[in-house]
């Protein structure tokens, strides 16, 4: 089924359910499985290029974690909301389904992550390897969405991210901002954008809470597998694959089938699965400035 060709903004009511209050978040952080936390801190040079540190929750309780997010420059993702927080996932998924029908999208898989982020923090220029609908629940944030073309997202760089040989962050130039569509998001809004469109985020001086719902269709699944196979062939054998926009769906399906065999044979080493964690919440060790 078709995917959005332009960013689209929708309204929702999930923010009215009381699930993003300090009390609700503190209780959730107390019980959320530690292995589902991703705790990131970003720093930037004068050209906007990013450095990443990752941390762990350690023994910090929910109140401590929430306080450190509010006082720091952290971006905390709580993964697998669809399993670990059904009270939130149910209304999010219902809102997504209504919007997906309006877009003509038929998902075959959906997952979610709850995002808690510090006032003023930023997420660097990156892309997501799935369709995304971002539901904003609290605070204000600004999203810059860029065209998903070769100038803003070289295919070879995209392949490396999909192969997990590098993180999602991409080469960014400030001149790209002239081509961005900019959205200031308030609680009660949801935003979706074209598949693989690069984007970056700036929080607007307040604590923010959002849910990122990732969805796969058969089109996105086949396209992702095709990029994986192309990346392996480029890396191992020096092949220069055709642009994905010039690759028909039947050819993408064949490449997707190849990617399954390549993954089984471990033909692309995952270089980010053991990313070293350099700080711990509640332990007095803050990320470097």
TrEMBL record:
PROSITE patterns xref list: JMJC
SUPFAM superfamilies named among the record's database cross-references: Clavaminate synthase-like
Domain of life: Bacteria
Domain JmjC intervals: 79-232
One Pfam entry name: Cupin_8
Protein name: Transcriptional regulator
Organism: Caulobacter mirabilis
Lineage, highest ranks first: Bacteria, Pseudomonadati, Pseudomonadota, Alphaproteobacteria, Caulobacterales
